Amino acid sequence: MMQYILSPCGTSLLTNEADKDERSLVFKYANKKHKEDIPDEDRAKLESLISKVSAPLQNAGNRKAMKMSAELNGIIQIYSGRIETSNDFHLLLSTDTWLGEETAKLVKSWLQRHNLTAVIHRQTDLQTSEISSFQLSLSELIKKLSEEIPKYSREGYKIIFNLTGGFKSVQGFLQSIANFYADETVYIFETSSELLRIPRLPVKLDFITIIEKYVDEFRKLSLGIEVDQSQLKSIPETLLFEIDGQITLSPWGELIWEEAKKELYIKKLLPSPIEKIKYTDNFVNAVSSLEKDRIDLINRRIDQLVEYFIKGTNPRSLDFKQLKGKQIMSSTHEIDAWSDKDAKRIFGHFEDDVFILDKIDKGLH
User: Which neighbouring-strand residues pair with 345?
Assistant: First the structure.
C-alpha cells in the first residue's frame, strides 16, 4: 500500500549533535525567519553546525540516522528498518524559520538518498514568537491539508502522521486533527525503541448542526470577509479568534468548517457571500439540476471568485477572463466550472460593479 507520511520537523537534529555553546545559539535564534536576521559571527557558527551534521547524516545507515534524527527515527520504524524504493510521499512540515527549514532539508536529503519522494512545506508564520500569527498559521495549514490529503486518500494512499519529531506545540495540534485526516498516528517514546501506532478512532463530531445555523457567517470568515460581531455571539468561542479587533476562524473553527463543507457544498447552491457577485435565475436553475459533486465544484468555484475580487488571486482552476470574439447572450467573462468529464464554463457579465453569473455552458474554444 502506498503511504502519505506527514512529519513535522524540529531542530533536534541540530541540538543532538551540538556542543553547549552551539545548542544555546540554536535556542536563541530558533524563531528567526532568515539567516540574515542573525549576527554574522553567530550565523557562521550555526552554518558550521549545519555542515557538521550534514556529512555524517548523509552517510549514515539506518541505526545512526535513527539516533541522530527523531523524524527519521519514526520514518525508519514505519518501514520496519527496510527502506525500499516506493511510491510513498513524504511531506516534511517545517516551521517558518531558517533553522527549521535547514533541518528539514537535511531530513529530505537523507530520504532522497534512499529513493523516497520528499517535499518540504514551510508553513508561513509557523513559529512560536507570536501566538496570534501562530494561530492564523495553523488555520492556513488546515486549509492546505484539507485540500491535499483527501486527494491522496482517493488515490489509495494510507495517511500517516509521524509525530516523533517537531515542536510540541505543532505536535499537539497535529494530534488534535489526526482523527479527521490520518489513518494512523505514530510516536516513539524516548524510553522505548518501539513504534506506538494509534489508528483513527471511529468518532464523528456533530459539527454540522452548528455550522448549518451559521453557514453564511462561517463561509465569509473563511474567505476573510468581515462579519458583524453581533451575528457571531451564539457561535462557540473556541471556533473564533480575534486579532486587532477583527474576528476570524480559529484553527478549530477552520477545521470543522472544512469538514462541514464536504456535506453542505453538495446539497445546493449557497447564497453569494458578497454583494459583488449575484446569480441569474437561469444560473440557479442550471446548478439545481446538477449532480452533487458538480454542485460542490460550483460552490467552491464561487469561493475562488470571491477571493479573486478581494485578493486578486486567479488560480488556474478558476481562470477568470474576458471573452474574446463570440459572446454568449450578454456574457462578457468566463470562469472554469470543471475541467473533467464534459468540461463546462460559467459565463457572466458586469452590471456597474456587480458581476452577474449568467449560465453554465461549454467553452467557446
Answer: 336, 361
Which DSSP string corresponds to 33-90?
SSGGGS-HHHHHHHHHHHHHHHHHHHT--HHHHHHH-HHHHHHHHHTTT-----S-EE
193 and 341 co-located in one domain:
no
Q: List the grid coordinates of 214.
A: 451559521
Buried b (16+ CB within 10 A) or exposed e, 33-67: bebeebeeebbebbeebbeebbeebeebebeebbe
Output phi, psi for 249, to 5 deg: -80, 135
* Axis-axis angle for helices 251-264, 131-154 (nearest 10): 30
Inter-residue contact 357 to 283 (CB < 8 Å): yes
Report whether 4 contacts 152 (CB < 8 A): yes
Task: Look at residues 201, 133, 121, 196 and name the one whose alpha carbon lies nearest to residue 166.
Answer: 121
Cβ-based neighbours of 145, under 8 Å, separated by 6 or more: 6, 177, 181
Domain residues for the domain of 219 are 204-264
Residue 365 has pLDDT above 60, yes or no: no
Is a pLDDT exceeding 60 seen at residue 191?
no
Predicted model pTM: 0.80
- Distance CA(120)–CA(163), nearest Å, equals 16
Cα dist from 336 to 24, 252, 295, whole Å: 53, 31, 13
Please, how many CA atoms are within 13 Å of residue 191, restricted to the half-sphere of its CB? Answer: 0
The residue out of 199, 214, 231 marking a domain boundary is 199
Residue 143, domain member (yes or no): yes
Q: What percentage of the chain exceeds 90 in pLDDT?
A: 67
Nearest CA to 239 among 226, 224, 225, 257? 257
How do strand 89-94 and strand 117-122 relate by DSSP bridges?
parallel
Q: Please tell me the chain's helix, strand, coil percentages from 3-state DSSP, rounded to the nearest 5.
A: 45, 20, 35
Final residue before a domain boundary, out of 153, 181, 199: 199
- The mean per-residue pLDDT over the stretch 331-356 comes to 94
Grid cell 478581494 is found at: 310
Q: Which helix (H) or strand (E) holds 119?
A: strand 117-122
